[in-house]
C-alpha cells in the first residue's frame, strides 16, 4: 500500500475550521455579553448624564439621587437591562455552539458513510 490516504478531505478540513471558529467565537461572545451586563449600571449612568447635558437641565439631580427617588423603577430598569444582555449573550452562545456541533456531526456522518462504503466495496 504505497498509496497514502488522507483522513479528512479538503471540504471536511474547511468544515472543521469553521466549526472550530464557531466554537471559539461562542465563548468570546458569551464573555463579551457578560462584561456588557456587568457594565450596565455605568452605561445607564453615562446615558443619564448625556441626556441631562443635552436637555440643559437646571434641576441639579444626579443619577444616584434620582435612583433613590424611585428605587423600584430603577432596580427593575437596570435588572431588565442586565437580564436582557445576559440572555442575548446566552442565545448567541447556544446558536454558535449548535452550529459548531452540527458541523462536527456532518463531518462525522460523512466519514462514517465513506468508511461503510469502503467496507462494502472490498
Draw up the topology in text.
Layout: H1 10-38, H2 40-55, H3 63-69, H4 71-121
Structure, explained:
The protein is rod-shaped. It has helices at 10-38, 40-55, 63-69, 71-121. Helices cover 84% and strands 0% of the residues. It is mostly helical and 122 residues long. It contains four helices and no strands. Helix 1 (10-38) packs antiparallel against helix 4 (71-121) and helix 3 packs across helix 4. It has one domain (16-115). The longest helix has 51 residues, at 71-121.
Count of individual domains: 1
How much helicity do the residues have?
over 70%
Estimate the strand proportion. Answer: under 5%
SS class: mainly alpha
Unreliable stretches covering 5 or more consecutive residues: none
Q: On the 0-100 scale, what is the average pLDDT?
A: 86
- The geometry reads as rod-shaped
Provide tags for this entry.
single chain, 122 residues, mainly alpha
Entry summary:
With 122 residues, this protein is mostly helical.
Amino acid at each position: 500500500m504505497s498509496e497514502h490516504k488522507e483522513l479528512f478531505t479538503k471540504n471536511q478540513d474547511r468544515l472543521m475550521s469553521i466549526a472550530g471558529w464557531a466554537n471559539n467565537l461562542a465563548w468570546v461572545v458569551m464573555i463579551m455579553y457578560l462584561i456588557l451586563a456587568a457594565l450596565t449600571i455605568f452605561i445607564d449612568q453615562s446615558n443619564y448624564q448625556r441626556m441631562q447635558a443635552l436637555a440643559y437641565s437646571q434641576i441639579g439631580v444626579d443619577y444616584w439621587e434620582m435612583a433613590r427617588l424611585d428605587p423600584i423603577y430603577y432596580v427593575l430598569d437596570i435588572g431588565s437591562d442586565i437580564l436582557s444582555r445576559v440572555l442575548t449573550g446566552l442565545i448567541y452562545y447556544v446558536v454558535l455552539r449548535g452550529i459548531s456541533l452540527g458541523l462536527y456531526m456532518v463531518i462525522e456522518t460523512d466519514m462514517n458513510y465513506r468508511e461503510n462504503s469502503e467496507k462494502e466495496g472490498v
